[in-house]
Specification:
Helix content: 25-40%
Largest sheet: 8 strands, parallel, barrel
Number of domains: 4
Number of helices: 16
Distance between the termini: 31 Å
CATH topology of the largest domain: TIM Barrel
Shape: globular
Radius of gyration: 24 Å
Structural class: alpha/beta
CATH architecture of the largest domain: Alpha-Beta Barrel
Length: 515
């Protein structure tokens, strides 16, 4: 019998730990619904103890999702587990994922605990989690650098205590494929009760080996892979869901398991949605979902593909949702067509007022662009949702003058804390001048870490999607803006980032929760 490979998505938890990638509650629910449509088995919605906002987001996802299991992360502490259990109370199927570090360096330097204490706490945590759900997962953090005999001891104890999934994380991306695969095989052979639990892996991409390590583990008996859309995650990210799924699907001759339950035609939609919400663009040469993944420029390649697709393509673009039939909207499209297409993309409105606001923005965009594609709609809705309740800065108008031989100048009108103010500044370019003019009003004291522009679709009338990353006092935020005018999109992104940096910090990234 061929086994099913369980796909555990942690975009909403580990993916969100990327600096500046924080998502709002509504955005998390949108992504969760897209993942449900993709038919992932488990959605790790967050770390409920991290903050009230994280708790509410996990609760909202648990209440909204019916077909996938919703998971909450918890350290091996009673308060964490109780909070996770409370957040998951409304889930149709809930899982608690608890963890504690097991590597010598983590136990000594971070936990300051002896090995016996770690085993005792791990067992107690699993038993505590079992009071809330029979679906309990345990992770020995930094397993990739842990001593094999101690790992076996911990895993045997937690399985006895009721853990039905044991996850082996390569927390710092230190392992290589052959080594990691051997580790999984050895654990399955040496742990006496290994047949009573599903072995899972969670690999980080510090050496660019996350997907390779995950697949090596699958070949050696792992039957759950923890991954993220677009490989999003802390530092260099995690194993990319789309890469794991399509590798197992494409090389079914090699892998003794299947991912037939995954609706791969939803991969591109999920990729674009996550990229739009987080402001993290996908590199053009990214496997599976990059803009060039199915593009052929070489004449030899083009000729071969025209004669027979299989000469240079091992997957069909249609399989990941690239060429599915879709309605192209324009300025003559009505409200119903707009609402219907967004619903097909997994976007629904909580109120008629929200629909009206988004539709008004759609009509404004339609006057600038002849055709509006799915990517435009996702960016439009994301921008609509960026209207924060505690928005202190609003862009009223922007005038920029830039000509050959002259210093660019920007004049901006902002509404700041309810009062309209105007400012003028010069800069090295129109965007630089606009940012300086805005900051003369706000005086934020931030440092610009990243300015990135990407075209949402093709053509000279394409919207430009701008990401601005700001830092202040160790806090990092991303701002996004989209417009057919790059300078205006840049100003929108800068203002969005300023609003986030000026807002009370609701959530501290749970770095200690990196498994």
């Amino acid at each position: 019998m061929t086994d099913k490979l369980i796909i555990f998505d942690t975009t909403l938890r580990d993916g969100e730990q990327s600096p500046g990638a924080s998502m709002t509650l509504d955005e998390k629910v949108r992504i969760a619904k897209a993942l449900e449509k993709l038919r992932v088995d488990v959605i790790e919605a967050g770390f409920p103890i991290a903050s009230p906002g994280d708790f509410e987001a996990v609760k909202a996802v648990a209440d909204a999702i019916q077909d996938s299991t919703v998971c909450g992360l918890a350290r091996a502490l009673d308060k964490d587990i109780e909070r996770a259990g409370e957040a998951l109370a409304g889930a149709n199927a809930g899982r608690i994922h608890t963890f504690i570090a097991t590597s010598p360096i983590h136990m000594k330097m971070k936990l300051r605990m002896e090995p016996d204490q770690v085993v005792e706490q791990a067992v107690r945590a699993v038993k505590k989690a079992r009071q809330y759900t029979a679906d309990v997962e345990f992770s020995p953090e930094d397993a990739g650098r842990s001593e094999i005999d101690f790992l076996c001891r911990v895993l045997e104890a937690v399985i006895d205590a009721g853990a039905r999934t044991v996850n082996i994380p390569d927390t710092v991306g230190y392992n290589v494929p052959d080594q990691f695969g051997t580790l999984i095989r050895t654990l399955r052979e040496k742990v006496p009760n290994s047949d009573q639990a599903v072995f899972s892996v969670h690999c980080h991409n510090d050496l660019g080996l996350a997907t390779a390590n995950s697949l090596s583990a699958v070949l050696n008996g792992a039957r759950q892979v923890e991954c993220t859309i677009n490989g999003l995650g802390e530092r260099a990210g995690n194993a990319a869901l789309e890469e794991v799924v399509m590798a197992v699907r494409t090389r079914c001759d090699i892998f003794p398991c299947t991912v037939d339950h995954i609706d791969t035609t939803q991969i591109m939609n999920c990729s674009r949605l996550v990229s739009s919400i987080t402001g993290f663009p996908v590199q053009p040469n990214k496997a599976i979902v990059g803009a060039n993944a199915f593009a052929h420029e070489s004449g030899i390649h083009q000729d071969g593909v025209l004669k027979s697709r299989e000469t240079y393509e091992i997957m069909r673009a249609e399989d990941i949702g690239l060429t599915t039939n879709k309605m192209v909207l324009g300025k003559h499209s009505g409200r119903n067509a707009f609402r219907t297409r967004l619903k097909e993309l997994g976007i629904e409105f909580r109120s008629e007022a929200e629909l009206n606001e988004a539709f008004a923005r759609f009509k404004e965009l339609a006057d600038k662009k002849h055709e509006i594609y799915d990517e435009d709609l996702q960016a439009l809705v994301t921008e609509t949702n960026l209207e924060l309740e505690n928005e202190r800065v609003k862009l009223v108008s922007l005038h920029v003058c830039s000509e050959t031989g002259e210093t660019p100048e920007a004049r901006v009108t902002l509404e700041f804390d309810g009062r309209e103010q105007e400012s003028t500044a010069t800069g090295g370019g129109p965007v630089d001048a606009a940012f300086k003019a805005i900051d003369r009003v706000v005086q934020s004291g931030t440092e610009l870490l990243l300015y990135s522009v990407n075209n949402i679709t093709t053509g000279t009338d394409s919207q430009g999607e701008v990401t601005v990353r700001l830092e202040k006092g160790g806090r990092i935020v991303n701002g996004q803006g989209a417009d057919t005018d790059i300078v205006i999109a840049s100003a929108k992104a800068y203002v969005n980032a300023l609003n986030k940096i000026l807002a009370p910090e609701e959530r501290a990234h749970p770095q200690t929760g990196d498994v």
